[in-house]
Amino acid sequence: MRRVSGVRLSGVTKKFDEGEDQVTAVDNVDLDVADHEFMVLLGPSGCGKSTLLRMVAGLEDPTSGEVFIGEQMVNDVAPKDRDIAMVFQSYALYPHKTVRANIEFPLKVRRVPKAERTAEAHRAAEALGLADHMRRKPGQLSGGQRQRVALARAIVRRPAVFLMDEPLSNLDAKLRGDTRTELVDLHRRLDSTFIYVTHDQVEAMTMASRVAVLNQGRLEQVGTPQEVYDHPASVFVAQFIGTPPMNLLPAGLLGGEGVRVGVRPEHLLPAADGAVTARVHQIEHLGHEVLVLAESETAGRLVSRLAPGPDVPVVGDSVRFEVRPADMHRFDATSGMRLP
Ligand code: ATP
User: Fold this and answer.
1) Helices (H) and strands (E) in the chain — how many of each?
2) pLDDT at 90 over 80
3) Closest ligand 1 atom to the C-alpha of 48?
4) 82, burial (CB in 10 Å: exposed 0-12, middle 13-18, buried 19+)
5) Same domain for 147 and 282?
6) Range of the domain at 296
């Protein structure tokens, strides 16, 4: 029978002592991760995402609040009894053991019979494209292969919940892309819930079923990648998600008093009667699109994303841009929160 294992955090706070002071790493977070969901915790360095993950793993105790795995409140349950597997950025493989022995190790600890161990390890290795390397030692593998051994070792444990902390950050761009695809595939095939920590919004957007955006220990927004892109709950989310980030106009411009208007680069379009005038100071040709970087006396720095073609301006041009009302994101200038 398969286990149903969502993860629920209720009012979870973590404070660390720092000399006389206390640092609040995680601040009163409520988060419901559904069974079999791929939840990505996203935020800048220091926002508390690793600490949050470590509390789910049991490696850190909450200062207050409760952590549930499935129906069980696990605050007092030891990490090894939590039915989780954790994959970190550093692979922590046994250097003197072969790939096969590394992958089998968690099963050996559980005294799983040898034939079964071998079959399980083989299945995981096949899934991750490691089957040809089973007799090698970690030192004979590339970084990406080692990362996949660490993943395979976690998979054989068949945990209800997978916790991953920046597991792709050591890989080069190509391998990162490939492994991203593998992870999504893996998630589809396994019965596990995934919670994945990253500061890379592209990873979050490409893999997550939902993204939880954290800022200074607080949860800013939880939603599908499309939701957080289309309806960012705050200026912080608006600027953190999307490359290049959303343009934010000075308070009052186009939006009335006390309102900051945001506009995605693809919605900032040249128009003969556009309301914002700016001088082009750089053009970035990316092949499939062109980024126009411009400076406006009223609106500051702006980025516009255009399709390549004869209408793309050149450096030095003065361009008028328009923002259609439907494309405007409106934020409270003081609180930074989205306005209806
Ligand atoms: P990164 O992406 O850089 O790993 P993060 O979002 O995972 O960052 P955390 O590692 O969770 O952030 O740290 C959150 C905050 O808590 C930071 O200000 C950090 O300095 C602080 N912190 C984390 N662990 C400890 C600790 N053991 N003692 C004191 N402060 C800590």
Assistant:
1) 8, 18
2) no
3) 11
4) buried
5) no
6) 248-332
pLDDT at 182 over 90: no
Q: Are residues 137 and 203 in the same domain?
A: yes
Three-class SS state of 38 = strand
Q: What is the pLDDT of residues 9-64, one digit of tens each?
A: 999 999 999 888 999 999 999 999 999 999 999 999 999 999 999 999 999 999 99
Query: Does ligand 1 lie within 6 Å of residue 215's CB atom?
Result: no
The pLDDT of residue 73 = 95
64 and 143: one domain? yes
Give the Cα separation of 117 and 209 in Å (integer).
32
pTM of the prediction? 0.90
Asked if residue 232 lies in contact with residue 271, where contact means CB atoms within 8 angstroms, the answer is no
CATH code of the domain in which 299 resides: 2.40.50.140
Q: What atom in ligand 1 is closest to the CA of residue 60? A: 27
Q: What is the pLDDT of residue 171?
A: 74
Give CA–CA dist 104/90, Å, rounded: 19
